[in-house]
Design brief:
Radius of gyration: 17 Å
Number of strands: 8
Helix content: 25-40%
Structural class: alpha/beta
CATH topology: TIM Barrel
CATH architecture: Alpha-Beta Barrel
Strand order of the largest sheet: 1-2-3-4-5-6-7-8
Oligomer: single chain
Number of helices: 10
Distance between the termini: 20 Å
Mean pLDDT: 95
CATH superfamily: Aldolase class I
Order of helices and strands: HHEHEHEHEHEHEHEHEH
Number of domains: 1
Strand content: 5-15%
CATH class: Alpha Beta
Length: about 300
């Protein structure tokens, strides 16, 4: 029988494949916290990596942003560069670790100045294969601000991963903001996106959390979440608009509304402080979604268990 992710220890994560991880999140009933961290900047605590900080405040899943698979680097680790940095981070945190890979659309119609990013951060066959080689547990197919990532390229990216990698890695896919392109956050469009992402192979559909982009609330999101669930996908509702640096009460409200919408995973982005959510906001979200007992247990359990 599959353990809930909130009950899992380091030894449990070490034995999981992508299907196990997905089912472990599913049976936790909305009590999974994902923290996204920038790892190429000087970390918040200088000599401790941002993902280690996120783990210590209760994050179940760690997502690395601005990670270039062609120049692997996680600042704050004792040895911050090289082919083993992801495995070292996993050894230190004993948490599933993922990477953002961005399916940039060269023909995207931009409403903001477009930012060019290194090839090693874009989604292509080489970067997907490198992500698997480096030891990542999941790939998040999404876009940072101003990158020109479109929903069609996300769809193409999901299909490419499934064709070449199969189910060897968990796939999260979607947008938490417009990424510099036109966006319309309406109920019918959200349902259509959730349906399409799930049908082409996303394990987890990513959508904006309530109150993070204009017009989004939990009532608007609920039909899209339900449709994704009907098709066997999970849903991650994401705080990717710098509100991860807001006050704790704001985060509690967004987290609870995400759970009301049916989210399986609650995401906090990397723009709270120096490449990480305000750590106390990770704690606040954890308390709100699963209570103090499970929060303290997640924080206290040794990576050696």
């Amino acid at each position: 029988m599959m353990k809930r992710i909130l009950d899992c220890q380091a030894s449990d994560f070490a034995l999981m494949n992508s299907s196990d991880l997905k089912n472990s999140i599913r049976v936790a009933e909305g009590r999974t916290i994902l923290s996204e961290c920038i790892v190429s900047w000087t970390p918040l605590l200088r000599d401790v990596s941002n993902p280690e900080v996120a783990r210590s405040f209760g994050a179940d899943l760690l997502l690395l942003n601005f990670f270039d698979v062609n120049e692997p680097q996680i600042n704050g680790l004792p040895e911050s560069k090289g082919q083993d940095v992801v495995r070292v981070l996993k050894k230190f945190t004993r948490r599933p670790v993922g990477i953002n890979l961005e399916p940039v659309d060269a023909l995207a119609v931009m409403v903001d100045e477009k930012m060019n990013i290194p090839v090693g951060r874009t989604l292509n066959l080489n970067t997907v294969e490198r992500a698997v080689e480096l030891g990542f547990d999941f790939i998040c197919v999404t876009g940072n601000p101003k990158t020109g990532v479109t929903n069609q390229e996300i769809i193409n990216g999901i299909q490419m991963i499934r064709e070449h990698v199969g189910d060897r890695i968990l796939v999260i896919a979607g947008k938490m903001h417009a990424a510099g392109t036109e966006a319309s956050w309406k109920e019918a469009g959200l349902i259509r996106l959730a349906e399409t992402f799930a049908e082409v192979g996303a394990d987890v559909v990513l959508l904006p959390a309530p109150a993070t982009v204009p017009g989004i609330d939990y009532l608007l999101l609920r039909p899209a979440v339900q449709r994704a669930h009907e098709l066997g996908a999970l849903v991650m509702l994401a705080v990717g608009t710098s509100q991860e640096g807001a006050d704790m009460e704001t985060i509690r409200q967004i987290a609870l509304q995400s759970k009301m919408a049916g989210a399986d995973i609650f995401h906090l982005g990397d723009a709270g402080t120096l490449g990480i959510a305000e750590p106390n906001n990770i704690l606040a979200a954890s308390d709100a979604l699963r209570g103090r007992r499970h929060t303290l247990r997640r924080m206290a359990a040794s990576p050696l268990r």
